[in-house]
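Lab notebook, bench 4. Continuing the backlog of folding jobs that were queued last week. Each job is logged with the same field layout so the records can be merged later without manual cleanup. Today's entry covers protein-tyrosine-phosphatase, a 172-residue chain. Filled in by technician R.K.

JOB TYPE: sequence-to-structure
TARGET: protein-tyrosine-phosphatase
LENGTH: 172
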Amino acid sequence: PNISGIEAEKLLLTRGIHGSFLARPSKSNPGDFTLSVRRNNEVTHIKIQNTGDYYDLYGGEKFATLAELVQYYTEQEGLLREKNSNTIELRFPLNCQDPTSERWYHGHLTGKEAEKLLTDKAKPGSFLVRSSQSKPGDFVLSVLTNEDKADMGDRKPRVTHIMIRYQLDGKY
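JOB STATUS: finished
OUTPUT FIELD FOLLOWS
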């Protein structure tokens, strides 16, 4: 996912367990990637170099694809280490893909985009669910109501947004 290190930490600490990880584009070195890994109650970030010809961890094995690099270090226990030589375990890729392919799920849509989609194409009672932009891991239910809102003299149907929060017990 194209998220910051802080967002990756939030996701891993709220939705992951020890050994959960995700690969994301590097914010500090465009073109490179970062592997964010949960270790107990902290998150470690590992830089992945993309030379254009191969991916590596700034030395060591070279891989044709990011997926090959991740698979290799997931399967080879004990190879990935911190500077202090503590082992970093890659066990569980954190699923950042869309959780469903249902028609009502619209993934990474902003609130404004959801409002436009619903007011342009839908009838009152229509809804969609999208990922929260402000709280990764949470969702938002956007519903077109039959109430009107005044918008610069125009009467437009109102869209209500309801946050669906992820709880630490794994429920929403």
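OBSERVATION: The longest helix spans residues 5-15.
SIGNED: R.K.
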